[in-house]
Prior knowledge:
The chain is 52% helix and 11% strand. The chain is mainly alpha-helical. The two termini are 34 Å apart.
Amino acid sequence: MTKRQQEKLVDFLENDDLYKVYYPLILFILNTGLRAGEVCGLTKDDIDMKKGVVHVRKQLGYRNIGDGYQYYWQPLKTVAGHRDIPLTPAAKKALIMEKELDFALGRRAKEQEVAGRSGIVFINNRGMALNSYSIDGTIKRIISVYNQRESKEAETENREPELLPHISVHILRHTFCTRSVESGINIKTVQYLMGHSEIATTLNIYTHVNAEQVKSEMKKLENIM
């Protein structure tokens, strides 16, 4: 997802009366790069607002384990997955807004335990835990609504529409990584934040080079030469 597309998505969610309820969740993923299972499995004891950090220690799975689809807790796949991610101002804002929505919508009164645990940070309006399928499905609906509205506005204004591509939790995570690299964060630090065991994963899968980046890097060479 390009920076422009990211800005369009965030602006739409922040200002749309119907879909702004999903704004904190999307904003949080964009500012932490958590995997779907990691963000779904976050509990209140994983968040330290005073120190400004989120502790990634577990994940929540959801699949058919022989008796229908069920939630289950599972450890992180690798040692590298265990990490402490500093909270950006936007990530803190997302958590505060989510807590306000919990109060306004009465979610906590409906909260349901998941495999013996309670206090899950992101829950739906019925008090149930989220999963990768539900989040991806929600994002798909959001993109569809946005593109329909944008197409109509573009037609009225006689211009080409700025449509959003297919977006999933994985792409939001990809976007966090790309923005981190673009901002100049050391690649080893990005590897840590992403929870990758191998730096090759960070370099080869989650980042790309565009023409503007090439021009910018070549200017550095001009100064040296």
